[in-house]
Amino acid sequence: MSIFQIAFDNLKRRKVKTIFLIVALTLGVAMVVAMNSIVEAMRLELGNELDKFGPNIVITPRYQGQEMYYGGTLTYDVKPLTESDIPIIGTIPDRESINIVSPKLVGAVTLDNRSVLIVGMDNKKEFNMKPWFSLKELYGATPGEELIDPALLDLPDNGLILGSKVAGIYGAKAGNTMTVNDQEFMVFGILEEFGSEEDGLVFANLAVVQNLLGCAGIYSTIEVSGFCNNCPIEDMASQITTALPNARVTALRQAALVREETINRFETFGYIFSVVALLLTILYVITSMLSSVNERTLEIGIFRAIGFRRSHIVQLVLLEAFFVSVAGGFLGFFAGNVIARIAGPFLAQIKVTVPLDAKLLLPAISISVIIAVLSSLYPAIKAANLDPMEALRFI
């Protein structure tokens, strides 16, 4: 009979202790997996929230005059942003983290004898970057019809999208005709009220606005959004600054700083909680294996008497711990994911579903094996050092 078979048979004979050992290892590993899964889900949700905030990076010309968020009159010693800057942005080392690059030109125009700010943009890029943009009116839509996502629309060259405040001032409706710098345009859509500066703006196609303002190939600002679950925003901003030395590059992460700090604190708490759980598991395994060795003094003495070496006894005890630990790690992986899915929304206030990460299976089993084997070393050495003559006195 091989030593593997002996170890396996020993575990079957001691079913209750074996089950308790597996349960202890399962709980210890489950706590580690659950905490890791919850933290990863929190980071995933943070990335989704950042995406909703719109641009992560804003690029404007570097100048000394008065500034505007959407642009303004550049008064002196300025090198404006141009079409040639767009491909340069795509050459930065972290270019794979770039999601959308949305250039805009902003300037003052006359709209039906009143001065307003008009924004020239690629509407699909702009509205994909800012998913909170929605239309309350759309030319051609019937009353009560669900409005199409503005990111899916093709804005015609003679079309305008009005902010809610501008539409209110003019009493404009979708389909109305308005004059911009002596050129006729149609109100293609009206945005919902957001309570922000967009309410007072007029939007049109970028090329059209460049023509109206006499600024062909010129941009007031370029906004960049990244894939925020992975993107290194500050690094990307630094790289763009190096690539465009005449531009001012600003990373916008303030909106997520508080949430990110909460995640870091929860992660620290998770690590501490996991370490405590693993320490308790180690203590239980050591105690259980020592008790097992003491109960099997006679059995070990017989093994030694029939020719088993000390190394064989050590191997026997460690093999028993290995078999139990593999089962505990496997069960702990699934138990941890279940705990994360149930407890995550309550512990961390997360709304996303905690994903089942198969990559954690091997680490879970590894942690269980390491804990069980290391915890069993002392009991194994103690068993190997038993005097066979002393053990046989119990016969």
Give an account of the 3D structure.
With 395 residues, this protein is of the alpha+beta class. The protein is 51% helix and 17% strand. The chain is elongated and about 110 Å long. The two termini are 23 Å apart. The longest helix has 39 residues, at 257-295. Strand 7 (177-180) and strand 8 form a beta hairpin. Strands 1, 3, 4, 5, 6, 7, 8, 9, 11 and 12 form a 10-stranded mixed sheet that branches. Strands 2-10 form a two-stranded antiparallel sheet.
The residue fraction in helices comes out at 40-55%
Low-confidence stretches: 64-76
Number of strands: 12
What structural class do the secondary elements suggest?
alpha+beta
Q: What letter string, H or E per element, gives the SSE order?
A: HHEEHEEHEEHEEEHEEHEHHHHH
* Termini gap: 23 Å
Number of helices: 12
Radius of gyration: 34 Å
Beta-strand content estimate? 15-25%
Question: pLDDT average, as an integer?
Answer: 81
Please specify the SSE layout and strand pairing.
Elements lengths: L2 H11 L1 H38 L4 E5 L19 E2 L2 H5 L8 E14 L2 E8 L1 H7 L5 E4 L20 E4 L1 H7 L6 E4 L2 E9 L9 E5 H8 L4 E2 L1 E6 L6 H11 L3 E5 L5 H39 L1 H9 L4 H38 L13 H24 L3 H4 L4
Parallel strand pairs: 4-9, 6-8
Antiparallel strand pairs: 1-11, 1-12, 2-10, 3-4, 3-11, 5-8, 6-9, 7-8
Helix pairs in contact: 1-10, 2-8, 2-10, 2-11, 8-11, 10-11
